[in-house]
Amino acid sequence: MSLAGQPAVVAYIGLGSNLNDPIAQVRSARRDIARLNGIREIAFSSLYRSAPMGPADQPDFVNAVMAVMTTLPADTLLMHLQAIEAAHGRVRSGRRWGPRTLDLDLLLYDQAVIDSAILTVPHPGLARRAFVLYPLQEIAPDLQIVGQGSLAELVRRCPRNGLRRIERD
Question: Which of 65, 72, 74, 140 could form a disulfide with 135 if both were Cys (CB 3.0 to 4.6 A apart)?
């Protein structure tokens, strides 16, 4: 694959928000990601509503998954995603799984396995998170996840836990 003549890979990004109009946050982040140099959107899932992981004293999340073709190295893509989070008012308080205006996770980067101080790919929670697996299956049903097998099998083993599609984007 190539993008503007450069070798490109397919990456999958998880988007989530539960503060400050979560649907608008996710839609805006989608546009911001698609505008990055070295990125071309190839698919975007429906929006899903899910209960928060961790502390229950916060609003439900709105989640989606985006597939992009990119020429950016994985760590550079991650830095851009974190800059988009910050531009959306994301504050990293140190509280794990707390409420947030925007959460962008690099889920998969081609078939790469990355384990560095700043990035782990495939995303370590991917196989257990309905709010990632179901939207991912919507846009890439035949996906094979390195080290974990078929997406279809992961979805089969992962209950929805209240996850519901709220709108087609």
Answer: 65
With 0-12 / 13-18 / 19 or more C-beta atoms within 10 angstroms meaning exposed / middle / buried, residue 53 is: middle
Rounded to whole angstroms, the Cα distance separating 30 from 44 reads 8
pLDDT digits (tens, 9 = 90+) for 41-51: 999 999 999 99
CATH assignment of the domain containing 61 = 3.30.70.560
Instruction: Count the residues in the chain.
Output: 169
Spatial separation of the C-alpha atoms in residues 30 and 91, rounded to whole Å: 19
Residues contacting 81, CB < 8 A, separation 6+: 13, 33, 104, 105, 106
Q: Which of 27, 32, 105, 129 is catalytic?
A: 105
Residue from 90, 96, 142, 169 carrying the catalytic annotation:
90
Q: How many domains does the chain have?
A: 1
- 130: containing domain: 2-167
Task: Please report where in the chains the tokens 């794990």 appear, as a residue.
Answer: 96
Q: What is the pLDDT of residues 114-138, one digit of tens each?
A: 999 999 999 988 999 999 999 999 9
Whether 103 sits among the annotated catalytic residues: the reply is: yes
